[in-house]
């Protein structure tokens, strides 16, 4: 969800609860919003904790990662799927490029625009004939 839409919904919930129940409604609405934010923070910390033990940019199978990727996935979802932080390939405004490789030499390079996966490429090592 777009963060702006989320905050607009939160404000609307606070206003509606104030009109319906007064200050006790505002207290309940704020409590629910804080609880939701804590759930999101807890999920982020858990994903990062799982990724902290793995080498940067390493996955068991780059081909499997390539098959599981979907357009529009968040970076946090990809990190959760790979259980590894990606190796940053390039830096540009509003575009992040991360790579994950396996032991066989295959590598997936994922381009994130606006925090979401837009495109990715799988490169495999040349096999001698």
UniProtKB/TrEMBL annotation:
The chain crosses the membrane at residues 20-39. This is Glycerate kinase. Keywords: Membrane, Transmembrane, Transmembrane helix. It comes from the Bacteria.
């Amino acid at each position: 969800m777009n963060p702006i839409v989320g905050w607009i919904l939160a404000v609307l919930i606070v206003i509606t609860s104030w009109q319906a129940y007064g200050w006790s409604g505002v207290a309940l609405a704020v409590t629910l919003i804080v609880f939701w934010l804590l759930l999101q923070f807890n999920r982020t910390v858990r994903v990062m904790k799982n990724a902290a033990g793995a080498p940067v940019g390493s996955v068991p199978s780059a081909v499997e990662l390539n098959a599981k990727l979907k357009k529009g996935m968040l970076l946090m979802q990809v990190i959760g799927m790979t259980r590894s932080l990606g190796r940053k390939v390039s830096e540009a405004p509003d575009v992040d490029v991360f790579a994950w490789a396996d032991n066989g030499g295959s590598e997936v390079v994922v381009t994130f625009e606006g925090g979401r996966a837009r495109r990715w490429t799988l490169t495999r090592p040349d096999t001698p004939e």
